[in-house]
Amino acid sequence: MKSLFCMFCTLAIASSVSAQETGNAMLKYGLNFLKTPYVAHTLEVNEEEKLVVNFDEVDCTTFVEYVLALSLSPVKNGAIDKTDYARVLQKIRYRDGRINGYTSRLHYIADWINNGVKHGFMEDVTAANSPDSIALSLNFMSSHPKSYRQLASSPENVSKIESIEKALSGQTFHYIPKAKLPDEGFSWIKNGDIIAITTNVPGLDVAHMGIAYYEKGVLKLLHASSTRKMVVITQKTLAQMLKNNKRFTGIRVVRMK
């Protein structure tokens, strides 16, 4: 792993695209991750649940979490303090900011967004701008325990996850159906907004995440791509990306506060 102190200094002071050009901390930090390798399951490295920080390898969720935590962390004397960063990241990744085993991690993006809104560092801007909504029906993790190391060997964790799923199911969230998203996006979707791509996979709410990025008047996605195996900006528009994937149904838009 790269030295976190050096990485924080680099991200806080220098950027491939300056804050003045992007006008947005999420893009300032996010663009520094371009070409970072995509690797799944980087949080599953400890027997006991601990906060993991790995800037060398990211998946779609950890990429967004790291960028959001950098954007929310205070810069002191030109750098981000490791302790401050860890505190912010833990607040983003874990329910109420407390680590209490595997199930305290916010695995479902609906839960992740609820936590961010509750604690005042995220705003779900879709609700005010799109009338379309879906009721949650979550059971993917408890229905596929063998896909998760911490569930495959722990009926207790499966039971806890099932309780979380039941508590979330029935909640309604607003989204933009992919048929209604134009290539140019909408004026209310801003550079640096978090884009959560909704899915028709049974028992799941969101299949992918990234950061809104406007290029030459069209909306693209800055994201950790499992197909291109690294952090990239989509070659096609976000709207075309959604249309080309039968499992994608639309997007939720979340903004850092």
Automatic annotation (TrEMBL):
InterPro entries: AmiA-like, Papain-like_cys_pep_sf
Transmembrane segments: none
Keywords: Signal
Signal peptide positions (record): 1-19
Any Pfam family the entry gives: AmiA-like
UniProt-recorded name of the protein: Xylanase
Upper classification of the organism: Bacteria, Pseudomonadati, Bacteroidota, Bacteroidia, Bacteroidales
